[in-house]
Amino acid sequence: MNTIVTGLQWGDEGKGKIVDYLTESADVVVRGQGGNNAGHTVIARGTKYVLHLLPSGILWDGKTNVIGNGVVLDPIGLVAEIERLEGQGVAVTPEKLLISDRCHVVLPLHKELDAAREAALGDRRIGTTKRGIGPAYADKVNRNGLRVADLLDEAYFREVLAHRTAEANEILSKFDLPTFDADQQAGEVLAAFTRLKPHVANTIPVLHEAWKAGRTILFEGAQGSLLDIDFGTFPFVTSSNTTAGGSCTGTGLPPTAIRQVIGVCKAYTTRVGAGPFPTADEGLADYLHDLGREFGATTGRARGCGWLDAVLLRHGCMVNGTTGLAVTNLDGLDNYETLRICTAYDIDGVRHELPPADRHAWDRAAPVYEELPGWMSDTTACTAYDQLPENARAYLTRLSELCDTPIQFVGVGPDREQTLVV
Ligand code: GDP
Q: Is residue 356's pLDDT more than 90?
């Protein structure tokens, strides 16, 4: 059954583990959006792997992994990722990995343009990861981006890059940021590309053949639904469609190819970067941080933490067409006496069951909470849903009702065995 896995919050939901679980029965794993700003941790056979751009199926033999056209690809970053993985003993061969010739390329200059844009925004900065993802997507929409297919034509690539570099340098010098030498940049990108060239293909027919042959395709979402350029908390979002629709536009597989959409969320909410977060709660944040939880994997930065927000999850389930929820990190709440779920926002005395579009309304959105008793016991050793404490099951049932979506998986710890199938 072809399945999409998307995050329902602001990323870091624990998609990696769910994707890894589903990868076992998948023949093809495909990424359709984002770039190497995303990343998840997969623990397989006792080893920890951090993946940014490579689909999770790369950790397995005999699976086809596809970086679809909707992904923005940083050749230098991808080669570094491949080399890191090869250093851990994972082979990355053209049989295992295909890269769409339609992917837009993230250039070194895009990273500095990211920094320039954040500097220009000042207090209104988005808090991007400065990996050049936003500027690469901007070039795509502006129709002056370079694609993987263009890297195959070196003369053309150099010519366009020279032009693009001159433009970028003008902006960068205004912000006292490093400028670029077009030839040096072209050299670096093309050198990295020699490692990637054998993987480049028109991936659309490959995916269609897999679909027609009844092979199982897993669409691996990056980031989360609230970072979606259309449906997220704009402007504090990423530059692509992280919701289910992005899996189609980003791969060339149509909506009719997809049967199942699994929405991953934590049993509470976390957020990094700037932007609205109505259910943020200092007490819960301190509690989770004291447990050593919710520190960014790459930055070490403490994540903002808050109560489960059913307004946002309801919205996420709607726009994704979520067929099942995967609730992770239930164990994080194991010893908290009274839990809260936000069921609506009160904005100027009016009850809202769905998030507002108006960015100013967020400042006035007061969460309407429902309180539920905690379960005050360790869930990490549970191996089946019915072993969970009654209050934990009640909490999950309430979440499911509020989102009108069944619970399919529950995470009670980072290990593979700690994923309960409902
Ligand atoms: P992603 O950004 O959504 O892909 O998030 P990751 O897959 O990187 O997950 C973040 C971290 O949470 C990883 O270190 C996981 O091992 C861990 N994790 C995932 N699910 C659970 C869970 O149910 N409980 C606990 N304690 N940790 C989890």
A: yes
